[in-house]
Structures are given as C-alpha cells and as structure tokens.
C-alpha cells in the first residue's frame, strides 16, 4: 500500500472530524485542513490575519502617496494664485510661506536662540508665628 489510503480509514476519520448527518458549508473543506491540530489552526489564522494587515497597510500607503501627489499639485497652484502684495503681507505678519525644519541651521532671531537654565536655589525659611503685630486689629 504505497501512497494509497484505505477508504474505511478515511471514512472513520471524516466521521470523527465532522458530525455525521449534519450538513455544513465546512464539509467541502479538505480532510487535511479539517483535522489539523488546534495550534496549527491558530497559527494559520494568525498568518492569514498578518497577510490581510500587510495588504491593508500597503493599500493605505499607496492611497496616501497618491493623495499626497494630488495635494502637492494643489498647493503649487494655491501659491501661484497669491499676489506679490499678499505674499509681502503674509511675510510681514509672520505667516510661514513653507514649512521646513530649522535643525542644524543658524537663526538670527535672539528670541528664538535665547536659552535659559533654571538654577535651583536653596529655600529661605521665614517665621510666621510669634511675629509682632499679628494680632492687632486693622483699622479701616
């Protein structure tokens, strides 16, 4: 019996895996898939979930990239619509024309470069009790 399986053994195994007399959509699955150990089924389920998550992430990334390309074209057209007077006004008001990092760049503004270190000073205690004039009435 090389490579063949006794039909009675397969029938007994199928009856063990499936409830006899119950019609189910799962009966169409293969015998090997139905009788896997529970840890293998759990691993397969996790693997399928990870594959679905990877596909979802990939589609979200591609959608984001496509929308970023469209938004970039829209931003360029928005900048082109501004008049030079409006651009000067925005610069005078301090509205940024573009967003860029200042990391590693020198900035001439002293307010932006001002750094301060908080020096921890020792506390000086004050006497609150037994002071003069604490019990006097305030005239008023």
Question: Helices, strands, pairings?
Answer:
Elements: H1 7-17, H2 31-34, H3 38-81, H4 84-93, H5 110-113
Function: May play a role in mRNA splicing.
Protein name: U4/U6.U5 small nuclear ribonucleoprotein 27kDa protein domain-containing protein
Region (Disordered): 104-140
Distance between the termini: 117 Å
Residues in β-strands, percent: under 5%
Biggest sheet, open or closed, and with what strands and sense?
A: none
Summed up, the helix count is 5
Q: Assign an overall shape.
A: flat
Sketch the topology as an H/E string, one letter per element.
Answer: HHHHH
Structural class given helices, strands, pairing? mainly alpha
Helicity, as a percent range = 40-55%
Q: Uncertain spans, ≥5 residues at pLDDT below 50?
A: none
Kindly provide the radius of gyration, computed on alpha-carbon positions and rounded to a whole number of angstroms.
Answer: 39 Å
Q: Total number of β-strand segments?
A: 0
Provide the residue-averaged pLDDT: 71
Structural write-up:
The chain is about 50% helix and about 0% strand. With about 140 residues, it is mostly helical. It has a domain at about 10-95. The longest helix has about 45 residues, at about 40-80. It is flat, with a radius of gyration of 39 Å. The termini are far apart.
């Amino acid at each position: 019996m090389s490579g063949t399986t006794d039909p009675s053994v397969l029938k007994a195994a199928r009856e063990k895996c499936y409830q006899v007399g119950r019609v189910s959509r799962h009966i169409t699955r293969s015998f090997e898939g139905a009788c896997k150990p529970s840890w293998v089924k759990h691993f397969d389920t996790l693997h399928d979930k990870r594959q679905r998550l990877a596909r979802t992430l990939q589609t979200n990334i591609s959608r984001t990239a496509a929308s970023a390309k469209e938004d970039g074209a829209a931003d360029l057209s928005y900048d082109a619509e501004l008049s030079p007077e409006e651009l000067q006004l925005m610069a005078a008001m301090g509205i940024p024309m573009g967003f860029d990092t200042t990391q590693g760049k020198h900035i001439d503004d002293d307010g932006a470069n001002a750094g301060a270190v908080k020096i921890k000073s020792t506390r000086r205690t004050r006497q609150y009790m037994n002071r003069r004039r604490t019990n006097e009435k305030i005239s008023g």
